[in-house]
Structures are given as structure tokens and as C-alpha cells.
Amino acid sequence: MNGSTAHKTTWTQQFAIAAAYAACYELARYFTVSHWMLTAGLRLACLFLLPVRYWPALILGEALPSFETALLNEPQFGAAWSLAAAVPMVLLWIPVVRPLRERWPLRAPDGTLRVGVLLTATLGCAAVTAVATTMELEAALMSNPGAWPDISASMYFWAYLLGAYLGALTLTPTILAIHERAAGVTSSRLTMLWRSALARDLVGWVIPMCAGLAWVALATDQDLLRQAARLALLLPMFAVSLRHGWHGTALGGMLASIALALTGITLLEPDMVRCQAVLSLGISGTLLVAPALARRKRLASPAVRTNR
Fold it and tell me: Global pTM?
């Protein structure tokens, strides 16, 4: 009796997680484009945070929208594309993430984030996404010869690679940072998270700066000013990173990435893609140096100097 109850509870948990993941996945997919894949960030965060025993729920939750998309678009893109598109991307990511998790846990023994592991997983999964999605595109092009003569699969490969990488950097570090800050906080003290120094900085000047720069990029008709405003989105991210370490990088990078995405005029706009590439490098580099800056800041604090 106890065994059957445990089995029933396990399946209930699996289906609950699958349903929740599918709902979040659909929301992220609504805002996803080829060069900004928010689904990648959600997928990678779940693979890092959930125990391996719940990964089948992720596969199930992603399989449902994947099958739906494959069936609905099969008449337009062909059977070969439909078969390739029906494979949940999370299933292709597991061979990349699982060996990393087993050999190098995301957290060091002292609880700090191993940024190198996070970025390695992000780049590896982005490469898998680019290869798989480009193969889907090739299948669609071969099934419909001459239908889209302006589309180059090689060009889209780099867009898919950047999209998955930047999409993962937009959401994964943010979800990890929020999870770390919320760990051990009771519901009665949850409001303390919203009254923290990081939250005040984000609301007080990071969001207004990102919104203002995005407005400038959208309102101007001068290409040089538009690019300058887009690249300036790195500045509030750098500033909040200096004050709050990798948590600041994660949330500041997310806000900068969203603001940059809002300035897009056309799909695969070359200037936009170049700015997204610079932003992805900026977030990656800042994530790498932010923990060292935070340690130096702690060692330089008066309390630490007094205790020596």
C-alpha cells in the first residue's frame, strides 16, 4: 500500500512539473525569435535546478508543444521537417548537461556559483540548438525547393547559435540568482527580497536607464545614435554588477537584453544582431569576474579588516 502511494505521488509530481514547465515554455516561446531564444534560458535553468529524477517531466512538458507545432506546420514545411521539429530540444540538451552536472556541480563546496560550468553548459547547449535547428531549416528548404530563395541555412546557423546563447544568458542566471536569494526565506520574510538593496537599485535606476536607452534607440532615425544607445545598455549592467556581484550581473543583464530586444526593427537586423553579440560577450565576461570583485569587496569592508 505504501509503495503504491509513493508511486502515485511520484507520477503526480511528474505530471504537475510537466504541466508547469509546459505553461512557462509556451510563454517563453511566445517572445522567442531566432536570435533571442528565451526558451533556452528556461530549459537550462530547469536542467540545473531540478533533480535528474524529474527530467522526464521536462521532456514531457516540452514534447506536447513540440508535437503540436510539428503537426500544425507539417503541410507547409514538409514531413522531414515535422519529424525533426517533434523532437523536444531538452532531450538533445541532456547529454550535454548531465555529464557536466555529474563531474562539476554547479555549486562549489562553499556554495558559490561555478560560472565556468554555467557558461560551458550554455555554449554547448547553444551549439546543439544551432545544429539541430539548422537541420530542421534544411529539411524545410529541401521539401520546398525554391520557396524561400533568400534564406541561407548557414546564415541562420549563427543566428540560432547567438539566439540560444543570449537567450540562456537572459534567463538562466536570473532564475539561479532568484532561487539562491529565496532559498531559506520564509513567506513572512519574502517582502525583504523586494526591499533589498539590489531590488531598490533595479527599480530606482537600472530599469529607468534601460527604458530610456531603448526609447532613444526606437525614437531616433540616426543609425549611429541608435547603435550607441543599444551598446550603452551595457553600462547599467556593469554598474549593478560592481555593487551586487553576479546577482547584479544576472538581473542587470536580463533587463539590458530585454531592452535591446525591444529596439529591434526587422527580423535578423544586422546592427541588432551585432549588438546582441556584444551584449552576450559582456554578460559572459562580467559573470566571470563578478565573483572575484565581490570577494575583494568583502575583504575590503571595515568589518573584515577589523577582524584580522
Answer: 0.90
